[in-house]
Amino acid sequence: MPFTQLQIELDERAAQSLLRKRRTLDTSQSPHIVLGGTTECGVANGAGVPPERLLPQTAGCASNVSEAHGKPYLAFCSNDYLGLASHPQLVAALQQGAQQWGVGAGAAHLVSGHFAPHHRLEQQLAAFVGKPAGLLFSTGYMANLGVVQALVGKGDTVFADKLNHASLNDAMLLSRADTKRYRHGDMAQLAQLLAQTPNGRKLVITDAVFSMDGDIAPLREMLALCEQHDAWLYVDDAHGFGVLGRQGRGSLAHFGIDSPRIIYMATLGKAAGVSGAFVAAEQVVIDTLVNHAHSYVYTTATPPALSVALLQSLQLIERGDALRAQLQQLVQRLRIGLADLPWRLMPSDTAIQPLLIGDNAQALQLSEGLRERGIWVAAIRPPTVPQGTARLRITLSAAHSEADVDRLIGALHELTRRS
Q: Active-site residue numbers?
């Protein structure tokens, strides 16, 4: 049976402590949640797979929702950095948007799915980050696929940081351009690669805040290299928008840089608290995407009610200095509290605070130890991160309290004494 080989591969991942599982939230997004059980049950609930080949945790199950069902947890694994995902003003705006505009767009933007709230949001997002024009996408993943594929192709070259997000890696492969990857943050190597590539369009792509390390790309130096070598700079600011820079305007504002050759992308389901993504750039770039970005042209538009909620979110971000200050205070409190652990807290000034464990099984054990204490922190393992760098990815939100952070610090110290 074709399923048998799939199950063997899943067994192999499980043996390496690499098997992924989903867990179900029974409450809205916040630091304090109620977590249900896992929802996976092998391949097609084991259909066609001999019982002896089923994973122990999935054999004979239909939906394993009893595990930890109804148990409250303190969560440190959401990207809801400003605590807006359940904000009452956003909930009210979404309700009002659905009442006025319905719950579906019905078509692609280029057919009959481009609504007035979409258009207003694109204009306001572009202005907020200091760009002439903007374009909405359904997700950041779709935005990255569309932009890179539309701007470069055969005969062109993409230059990419080796720790870029998977969506950027997929995007450069889809583009069919030549690809050159440089060591993480190594501007000398990037300069060398650019100098060795005299022909074709050149596109440098990078995370602004790296999602698994929490560090910030040297965007000022990257822009200087792009200016020197006539390259575009595509910045994925999924984890910087709303958090970094004056009024949360993102990583470009954080560094105080601007250039027509910068193409900026940010997601709207993290600090913005809703869903989607946008690209902001020169008008000619946006016009090119409208005509050539497959992940924009050939997909149904997002519900216009989401844009109504995001227009409200943008106002909260702009007025959210107190939330950003609270977030930074919690970051410093956590770093001080975990400074003496045997595991290294990776260097990061952002809401992403990775605790480097190294071993896959030990990272899972620590995550489980925290879960037994009512704290949810995700263990991140290869291939999401390089081999030997499994970690606990601690993410903080302005909605956390000092007591929440102290509870996590205490639990990790307790686990240290028992390990």
A: 211, 239, 270
